């Protein structure tokens, strides 16, 4: 099964009006990692005891997004263009690998799980991954790679703040 076939199946089973509206909302929130960086900035502002951790969340979202943009320009994989796939949102680039939304979301939510000492934020990672496929703007390998890059970036940045 080709990745385009997977997208067709994802859209066939999940692209209801409510899911599409939610996916578009997530798309706007995650654009250029701005929603995640804003959330981190707000956390740093109101949670003084954990300010450094919130700043690392912002750094993880920013750095992971930057990494994904650089990789996109090197790999230059085009976004899905199969006529069976419906595109549900505009994108700032025609390049798809890796998904910057999956990258920054993974970085932010891995960081948030660390800050809160609660694994529940991690559930948002597959939600963003699936939303990008429902919208027809990323292949499965785009979102999987993006999530991995984001998680690794968050872990690396978290380790920079550890006291020995």
How is this structure best described in words?
The chain is mostly helical and 164 residues long. The protein has one domain: Vanadium-containing Chloroperoxidase, domain 2 (Orthogonal Bundle), CATH 1.10.606.20. Helix content is 69%, strand content 0%.
Describe the structure concisely.
The protein has about 160 residues and is mostly helical. The chain has helices spanning about 5-15, 15-30, 35-45, 50-75, 100-115, 125-135, 140-160.
Helix content: 55-70%
H/E element sequence: HHHHHHH
Total of DSSP H or I helical runs spanning 4+ residues:
7
* CATH topology title: Vanadium-containing Chloroperoxidase, domain 2
Approximate shape:
globular
CATH class: Mainly Alpha
Average pLDDT, rounded to a whole number, is 95
* Residue runs with pLDDT of under 50 for 5 or more positions: none
CATH architecture: Orthogonal Bundle
Topology summary:
Layout: H1 3-14, H2 17-30, H3 34-46, H4 51-75, H5 100-116, H6 124-134, H7 140-160
List keywords for this structure.
mainly alpha; 164 residues; Vanadium-containing Chloroperoxidase, domain 2; globular; single chain; 0% strand
């Amino acid at each position: 099964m080709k990745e385009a076939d997977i997208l067709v199946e994802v859209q066939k089973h999940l692209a209801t009006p409510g899911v599409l509206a939610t996916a578009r909302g997530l798309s706007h929130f995650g654009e250029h990692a701005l929603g995640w960086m804003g959330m981190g900035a707000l956390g740093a502002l109101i949670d003084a005891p954990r300010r450094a951790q919130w700043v690392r969340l912002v750094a993880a979202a920013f750095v992971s997004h930057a990494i994904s943009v650089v990789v996109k320009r090197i790999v230059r994989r085009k976004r899905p263009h199969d006529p069976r796939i419906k595109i549900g949102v505009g994108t700032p680039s025609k390049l798809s690998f890796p998904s910057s939304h999956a990258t920054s979301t993974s970085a932010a939510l891995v960081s948030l799980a660390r800050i809160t000492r609660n694994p529940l934020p991690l559930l948002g990672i597959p939600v963003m991954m699936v939303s990008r496929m429902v919208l027809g703007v990323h292949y499965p390998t785009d979102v999987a790679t993006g999530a991995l890059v984001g998680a690794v970036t968050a872990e690396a940045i978290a380790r920079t703040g550890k006291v020995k």
